[in-house]
Design goal:
Elements (H helix, E strand, L loop, with lengths): L1 H27 L3 E2 L3 E5 L7 E3 L1 E2 L10 E2 L5 E6 L2 E6 L3 E6 L8 E7 L2 E4 L3 E5 L15 E3 L2 E4 L6 E4 L5 E3 L4 E4 L3 E9 L2 E10 L2 E4 L3 E5 L6 E3 L2 E4 L6 E4 L5 E4 L2 E4 L3 E9 L2 E10 L9 E6 L6 E3 L11 E4 L5 E3 L4 E4 L3 E9 L2 E11 L1 E4 L1 E7 L6 E3 L2 E4 L6 E4 L5 E4 L2 E4 L3 E9 L2 E10 L4 E4 L3 E5 L6 E3 L2 E4 L6 E4 L5 E3 L4 E4 L3 E9 L2 E10 L2 E4 L3 E5 L3 E3 L2 E4 L6 E4 L5 E4 L2 E4 L3 E9 L2 E10 L6 E3 L2 H7 L9 E7 L5 E6 L10 E4 L7 E6 L6 E6 L9 E9 L12 E2 L12 E3 L6 E4 L2 E5 L1 E5 L2 E6 L1 E3 L5 E2 L2 E8 L6 E9 ...
Parallel strand pairs: 2-9, 11-18, 20-27, 28-34, 36-43, 45-52, 54-61, 70-74, 138-143, 139-142, 141-144
Antiparallel strand pairs: 1-4, 3-7, 5-8, 6-7, 8-9, 10-13, 12-16, 14-17, 15-16, 17-18, 19-22, 21-25, 23-26, 24-25, 26-27, 29-32, 30-33, 31-32, 33-34, 35-38, 36-68, 37-41, 39-42, 40-41, 42-43, 44-47, 46-50, 48-51, 49-50, 51-52, 53-56, 55-59, 57-60, 58-59, 60-61, 62-63, 63-64, 65-66, 66-67, 68-86, ...
Length: 1901
Amino acid sequence: MQMRKKVYALLLTLLLTLLIGGMAVYAESSFGINIKTATVNIGDEKNPLVLEIEKLPEGRKTKWVSWNENVATVEQEGEKGVVTALRKGKAIISSGIGFPRETCLVTVVEPSIKLNKATAVIYCAPASENAEATSNGNTIQLKATVKGANKDTLWSSRNTKVATVDATGKVTSVAAGTTDIIATANGKSSVCKITVKDNALSLSLKEMQLSTRGTGSAIKLIPAIVGANKKVTWATSNPTVATVKGGKVTGKQTGEADITATANGVSAKCHVKVEEGLISINEEHVLLYKMQGTAETKKLKTNASRNDTVAWSSNNDTVATVDNNGLVSAKGAGTAIITATCNGKTDTCKVEVASTTTAIIERIVHLKTKGVARTYTLDCRVTGRKSAVKWKSNNTKVASVSKGKITAKKVGTAIITAEANGVTDKVIVTVQEFVPTITLNQSEYMLYTKGKGNTVTIKAIVDGANKKTVWKSSNNDIAEVNAKGKVTAKKPGRTLITAEANGVTAKCWVRVKEPKVILEKKYYLLNVGDTAELAVDIVGASQSMKYRISNTKAVAIKKGVITAKKVGIADIDVTANGVTSVCHVMVTDCKEHDWKLTEGTKKEKDDIVATCEERGLTTYICTKCSGKKQEVLAPLGHQFGRWTVIVKATENAAGLEKQVCSRCDAENTRSIPAKRKGDIAEAYKLVWEDGFDGDKLNLNDWNFEYHEPGWVNAELQEYVDSKDNIYVQDGKLYIQALKEIRDGKAYYTSGRINTKGKKNYQYGRFEVSAKVPSGKGFLPAFWMMPEDESYYGQWPKCGEIDVMEVHGSALSTTYGTLHFGEPHTQKQGSYTLPEGEENFGEKFHVFACEWDPDEFRFYVDDVLFYTVNDWFTQKPGFGKVAYPAPYDQPFYMILNLAVGGSWVGYPDEDDKFEENAQFVIDYVRVYQKDDYDTDVDKPENEVKLRDPDETGNYIINGDFAKVEDLTKEDSNWQILFANGGAATAEISDNALHITSTSAGTVNYGVQIVQANLPMENGAKYRLTYDAYADEARTMITGISAPDRGYIRYLEDKTVNLTTEKQTYEHIFDMTADSDANGRVEFNLGNQGSIAKVHISNVRLTKEGDAEKEEKGVLPDGNYVYNGQFNEGNEPGRLRLAYWDWETRQCKGAKVSVTNDSIRELKVVVPDSVNGLDQVTVFQEDIAISGGKKYILSFDAYADGNKTIQTTIAGKTFDSALTKDKISYKYEFETPTELNGSEICFLLGNAGTTYIDNVCVREDCMIVNGDFSNGLLGYEVYLNDAAKVSDYIVDSLNEKDAFSMDITDTGDQDWYIQLKQSGIKLEKDKWYKLSFDAKSTVDREIMYALQRDGTSDDDWTPYSGQPKAALTAEFQTFEKVFQMKSETDADTILSISMGAVSGKQIAQKHTIVIDNINLEETEPQEETVDPPVDPGKNMIQNGDFTEGDAHWINAVTTPGEAEVNFTEGKAAYQIHNVGTEDWNVQLKHAELLTLEQGASYQVRMKIKSTESRTVKYAFLNPAYDWYGGEDLVLNANEEKAVDFTLNVEKPTEREITFVLSMGQIKDNETNESIPTPASTIEIDDICVEKISGDGDIPEKPPVEVGIELIQNGDFASGKENWSDYVDSAANATTDFTENKARYEITKAGTKDWNIQLKQEGLTMEADASYKLEMKIGSSIDRDVKVALMGAGDAWYGGIDIRLTKDKLKSVNRIIKLEDTEITGTLAFQISLGQLGENELAAHAVEISDISLTKVESGTTEGEETDTDQIITPPENKEEESNLEETNTQDKQLDSEEEESNSETDTTSEVAESESTVQEESTETETEFTTEEESTETETESTTEEESTETETEFTTEEESTETETEFTTEEESTETETEFTTEEESTEIETESTTEEESFKIDHNN
């Protein structure tokens, strides 16, 4: 035993010797790192940390390594290591050589410095040397708090002339001004803004007057001090006059003194004057309040003695009065000066009177019965003497109030009143039922399968009656939860923990991980004495570790640092959270290692590949000592993609989103907080109201709307702005519906107003107090429309909000409705008043709608009756716009009263239209909350789809084994009827048999349907059935969506049934959202047959998944989807559908879409970015193809100037952005081999970038012209009246060509159209449109590039409307044209395949169209057509002997007419003239050529059964007017038209001749002229060229003296004359006894309502014509005579005043206008209404009409009019007397003509009167001057050119009475005994003076 011990001792001695020897060797060559620990500042480039190995052996190299490169990196510079700090944290920097390895622990800090003050004010040093230095405030001590390696602070002043700073931070003022004091440390700075102010002092008074006694003997001065020292020293210059103490100045005796105040070395003075007996009021300023019913008072006092008398007065008694004792009383708001006077001295007091107010800012508050939303504190603003507010609730059982804090008690409504100073205000409080809530204390937990973090107890906060909580885990294998919420982890994964109480739930996520101990290295190779840090990462709840060493003699470890003690091997176990990892330590004495990589199995065992999360290891082995070392490879780091939502957050439960690493597929998850709603009270504040307090509508807020009857909803009223229809009275707005009779029919007018462009709001409470009209057909409404109706598309896509609609026939029910979507969808609720309550027409009720971003609530009298939160909008062919569109934009308000309509019905004939027809509005108000949460999600409505039967069939009773009654609602199969359809259906013999008795007027007039079919999104379906008919016929099959506007899931298919049973099959993809209520339809309506149909074996089965829809080109031609950034509802990707982004290289970059009403891509990039490619936004699968030209465009701007890049198809485009939004456009061509591409925006430039309207289009004007992308870019329009069985892009029979099968074209060309919109045509450019087309039957189609008339019905065809004659073979058709209109970026290409040229084709045929192309072309020389032969009729079939050949019958809604082309004429039986003249129209099918400078004769015959007007016109393709006339037709009289058309406009080869017979409008006012329905016959239309080729022959001159009027003496009765009586007037005519007699009972509303007319007069422009005629009236009135040309052109005329029962002999000169006369003129006498006063019933007689040309220059004196008394002749004697009178008149006319030829004219006219106007003189027996006259025996009135001799007349301008009558060319004067001028009347006997010259009047001549 002892021997063994000796051996052991010997061995130990030897070992120690060896070890000591080795250590000695090591000591001799020891080396070390220069710095063991260091603190480094981020960004400190001036003072880098430099590491080096001291005493480095020769030949040895260092390799510097950082173990945490996220915190700090190290760069190799020779043998030194230069450390760069990146982010806060710690990093070990090792030398990479030696044994042990040398390390430096680097702590990286973010340096900062902060001053204790950001701003400070100090003052200049006092100028006085005696000022107190310790309190002068001219210094301040700043202190800096420094974080960083270097605590030294450098101080500086930016402006030392203002202030300086020393090394300690003490700032000293120098002069007034501002400067920045800067403290700097570790490269960081902090600034304090120092303001230095001059010391200053001022007093409240610069001078004062004091009395030696009383209250006016002392006044206190108030000093204003600028400076640190607030102490003031006071002094007086004369203490015997005035003393001062503490600023109080007291007068002692009469005299003057100066009071001086001093502070901070500066002084101020006040001059004092002391007098005996000054009066002084004890108050300088008084504030009083005027309260409701009461007013405050204030007693003023003076220093007057009891023996003095003081007089008081106020300068404004409306503000304040004062009595003899100085008592001031408030009267009204404002300012008054109260004056006191005593002994000749005065003093004043300023009195301000303010109104007391009490105003609660909130107007409506919504509370809940429990929870946080149970209380709300009101904001009440008070002005008045007292600020205390008395609060009161009118229903404390619903809500109580204390100090403005409302507390809800139970469901109901209460009014809270605040009262202060006698003034009250109130707020409405609604209390709703509390919804229980449950919340968890965290939304996510991390647990571990072992150790301390294995369990957690989750706390639930329950707000509800039942506090018991039920817990549940979604995956008990991962974690369990007990009844108390304690969760225990089981295995890695994640589970959802749910807590439920009171029927509501809260959820949180629990993530479970395995605890891990991760060693940085498995092997450590040390020399004796070396140390090394054992780097360990712990995954688990506890970070504490335990170590166990297998060989403590070789190795020791303390606080994670390994120390090599002696040569040997040891294992170190590291244990944490129950998990152990082992590392191996070898202590060696090897001096020079020879390293090589491990190989083979050792390499596989020792080496570790770096992963995203864990370090990698590369192992080396020493060939000498077999020791191992390992180099650590840094973790690769995850490359996480974008966050995607896997569980949506709800109101009560958190959601979850994840990231997936592209390297390792690891998932990173995070919780989405629950969306809490209703937790806080909602308070609405008034933002706008109109109480209609004035006397008219406020047009700063409101607009009138104008619409014709039938504009929408088949309503009857016209909307006008008449004061009879819309007016304000007694604080109310009245919208009055009126009814009148026009043309024997009821005509309705009403009012409609809106706030568009003036008051629009996004979100809020919209409220109206109103009383509605009563009666069938009334529909009052308060509703809203979007300010920008086109943003999401026109109605209904834009959205509509109907706050209130009430039917006049159901006054107790109101409706609240939303309209939206495409297809049109509505959500509607209604509310009916309780029985016994006054209805909406009996009293005012309040209708309101509260609009939040994600909810609408509709109220009546604060009773909530309807809530909506689910809606959508979508344009056809595009994706759904992100919720909450369309209700995320401003809307304006509308008030209107409709009469009649498709929804409300129509009024009865005997309905009253008085007060019952009034929509009365008390007020309109808008309230809003302070803010709105716009981050809202569309509610998810779970669609439950039923399972099919055991055979997979979703059709119930599809084999018809069960007999059903198809007329019952609960039957599986149902029969439905529409528009006159009628049929019976029965089930027998396993089949359904349908017998139709009427097909109806629509193809769905008879329907067999089965609803409730489950349709799943993304599924493929097969519909099969057997069917046959008793005779061949068609049937239309489809599957629709009754709940979604009957959109088609299976597009309608027309199948041809035969008499043999056949099986039919339709396969389709369900691409719409899932729907539990699909409906199969078999339509058997109007399809040309009512043959009996038999259906059996109906099956609908699912056939797998639908084919994935590939991206193509959108309907607008854009290849970029969602280029406007408004599609997509996915959380985290809201409005970013189809777009992706990459920001992993730039942490902090954010990609989103703005949440404003205009959506834009918003990309925020931090300053740390260092490359454009570090932030990219891109869209894949852009379906562009190779070898084509495209245009890329987008709008962009930024928060500053920057450059971004865009790449597509291998092209890169740089865009220089500014703060202004700019449109960028780039052209590019794709490589031939390209098939699809990606568009990518490179946005890695610091700041914020905005992008919108991203678009890629083909660089061709027609998108997809070769149909290679199907029908994308095109729209097919089909009218119900046309029948099209199918249309496709045919790739089997054709090479991608459009093919349409037409069964019936209908009777209008536009009933079938292929269209493409969004084409840009620029003004003055030339274009060529071409395409290929063919048809299986020879026929025409029509094509055009035209204006989009959707909004205003203007469809101007820019290209004209050429026709293409199709045959069975392809032909190419071309049209070259110039765009003559303004540039239009929304032009439509339309190819019309309906009844072109009026030819309806009911024969089945196929049209094929391909290769549509539009391109710019060079300007074209106009082709010269062969001239039209003069005398040849250009109208084909103008006599209608060929029926309707060459003619188009165009009757459009609402016009209604039947036309018949028989018996050589066109006969129109018109039932409804419509609203426009073109609603009933006859058009010549062939185009005419009208040449500039040519003349054409137009002739036709036309007759109407009613008196009315029609129009004919010659129009070019842009509807420019080339000529035409309005034709006035008399009932049952044929009118022969003979008109000469002279063409002055440029030659046009595409002229259409049209005859319009619809609603005619006044050419000047554009108001509708009453146009009755009638039957019109047209015949013998002829248009002949009579001259041309540029030379229009001059008309032969009209000879002087030739009579132009035919049958002017009416000897031939009515021949050559037409008598027109409009429907607005009433008159009978008689053409006998050589005169025309009109018995007029109603004159109408216009002068032309009654006319006598003769057409076809050939006259010359700028010529004079003499009119002679006799005309008389049984009442005083005026008539008009006019010479009219084509298009109602006026060429000349006169007005004639008629005197009751007197016959006027007219003799006038008419000078025609100097305007070229087109064609002939019409002579017309207008006898309708002239002036404002309605004419009474009367008679007019006309005879002896003559019109002749006179020599030019004929003087005015040749004109006379003479009156004579007329009486209807009863016998020959009276006739003889009348003839004698006429003879006398002619003699008098002759005498007047002789007298007018003399220079000086004298005449003696006994007892006659004369009136001189500007043109005429009429002689009568009595008269009245308009301005001033002196009467003797005669009076005169001057005009300009004419003299009329009458028995009675009126002066207007100037009359002078003499006894002589004379006429000059400028004026005429009749000589009488009295002459009156405009300004004064003068009686003269011998002389009369005119404006131009004086005439000597000889009375004796």
